[in-house]
What does this fold into?
Amino acid sequence: MAELRPTEILISEAQIQQRVAEMAVQIRQDHPDDLHVVAVLKGAFIFMSDLARHIPGHVSLDFMALSSYAKGTTSSGEVRLQKDLDSALDGRNVVIVEDIVDTGLTLTYLQDILRSRGPKSLRTACLLSKPSRRKVDVKVEYIGFTIEDKFVVGYGLDYAEQYRNLPHIAVLG
Ligand code: IMP
Ligand code: MG
It folds into this structure.
C-alpha cells in the first residue's frame, strides 16, 4: 500500500491569510467588548495563532484538547476530552476556534460542554467545513472555506501527526 502524502494545494497560504484576517475583523465586530477565544488542540493551533494576531483590542485565549480521530482518515464518532480549559466561562462572550467541521460530532460535543458552563454568548469559528460529510446539524457562525469531501492536511491539520506545519491546505492522496 502506497503511503499517503500531500498532493495538490487546495488553499494557498495567501488565500488563508486573507480569509483569516477577514474572519478576525468579523469576530471583533460581533464582540466589541469582552471576547474570550477557545481553541481546540492540536488542529486549531496555527489558525488560532494567526486569527488572534488579527483581532484588534482586548481578547483572552484558552485551549482545550479533544480527540475524535484515532489514526487514519475516517471518523470514529467517539470524542474524548483530553485537556480542559484553564478558566471559567460564565458570563463571557466565547468563540470556539476549530480547524475543521466534518461530521459535526466533535463540535456538537464541545458546544454542549461549553454551553453548560454558562457563557453569555457562544459562537464557533472553523477554518474549514465539509458540509457533505455532516452527520449532525451543528451551528458554525464563522466558516473560512467550504470544501469538498477530501481529506486535507496542513495549517494545523494532520494525517497521523504529520503535515501540521505546511503553510497551506493540501489534499492527501
Ligand atoms: P468531526 O467530529 O467529524 O466533525 O471531526 C472533526 C475533527 O476531525 C477535526 O477537528 C479534525 O481533527 C478531524 N478531521 C476531519 N476532517 C479532517 C481532514 O480532512 N483532515 C484532517 N483532520 C480532519
Ligand atoms: Mg481537531
About this structure: Residues 40, 43, 99 surround magnesium ion (ligand 2) (CB under 6 Å). The longest strand covers residues 93-101.
